[in-house]
Amino acid sequence: MLKLKNLSVSIENKKILKDIDFEFKKGKIYAVMGPNGSGKSTLAYAIMGHPAYKLVTRNSQLITQISFKNEDITDLEANERAEKGIFLSFQSPLALSGVTVYQLLQLAMNGKKDPLTIRREAQKYAKELGISEELLNRPLNEGASGGERKKMEVLQAAVLDKKFLIFDEVDTGVDVDALKKIAGFLKKHQENRTYVLITHYNRILHHLQPDYVLIMMDGKIVKVGDASLAKKIEEKGYSAY
Ligand SMILES: Nc1ncnc2c1ncn2[C@@H]1O[C@H](COP(=O)(O)OP(=O)(O)O)[C@@H](O)[C@H]1O
Ligand SMILES: [Mg+2]
Fold first, then answer.
1. What is the end-to-end Cα distance of the chain in Å, rounded?
2. Which of 23, 55, 128, 230 is the most core-located residue (most Cβ within 10 A)?
3. What region holds the ABC transporter domain (predicted)?
4. For residues 164-202, b (16+ Cβ closer than 10 Å) or e, as one string?
């Protein structure tokens, strides 16, 4: 579904991601693990098309190719990639003063769903996620806890019907109950969607079994395994890699 060919990314002329080749398949759950600074967030931003993360060139030619549903998206901007169905949930979602999630969703849908449908869907998903009516009507994330912010991100992805969802540090700052709700929601709506869960811990993986676990070290994917790999990491750490 999403294919990375030779993904090489530099920030301020420092090479961060090094020739990553990987294909994420439709309908699968991926966990991306790795020590701090190994490039997990950079991978997420590069897939999303964040302008600060420059693809490396050789003799002024791009060496990277990113394709999504068999379409080359290497040259697309972040908003165009979002339009195609790619979604990145940030490590710490920001608050927006004066804008409700309804308004934001209407803006993002750009007329593709009418306001009433958006409202109805948002309310339905909010119920499933345990988001209160009051939080839903507040300016986005104002005074919201870490768990509430993550839930609001998941809700937006659902209303926008995104197909390839990346969650950076999905379980950071999220309490046990919120995590369970989020994991349950993702599981329920998994059909035809790909999830990439960047995480330091096994916590979320207890609720949402990954099909594949990727270990990142120093800007590369050094190991791909099944769910048992996450368990091994929890017990033994990354020193073996
Ligand atoms: N904006 C930036 N400017 C300079 N270096 C950066 C920037 N963002 C990330 N890096 C560097 O890139 C490497 C990978 O970072 P990151 O992708 O955030 O790692 P992770 O998410 O795995 O902890 C680190 O060495 C980090 O210092
Ligand atoms: Mg990170």
1. 28
2. 230
3. 2-241
4. bbbbbbbbbebeeebbbbbbebbeebeeebbbbbbbebb
Ligand nearest to the CA of 12: 1
Ligand nearest to the Cα of 42, by number:
1
Which H helix or E strand runs over 85? none
Mutate to test the pocket of ligand 1, among 8, 10, 16 (most ligand atoms within 8 A of CB): 16
What CATH number belongs to 2-236? 3.40.50.300
Helices 146-159 + 101-109 axis angle, to 10: 30
| In the chain, domain spans | 2-236
Q: What is the pLDDT along the chain (241 residues), one digit of tens a residue?
A: 999 999 999 988 889 999 999 999 999 999 999 999 999 999 999 999 998 888 888 888 888 999 999 999 999 999 999 999 999 997 777 788 889 999 999 988 888 899 999 999 999 999 999 999 999 999 998 889 889 999 999 999 999 999 999 999 888 888 999 999 999 999 999 999 999 999 987 888 889 999 999 999 999 999 999 999 999 998 898 988 8
For residue 107, the CA-to-ligand 2 centroid distance in Å is: 28
For 117, other C-beta atoms within 10 Å of its C-beta total: 12
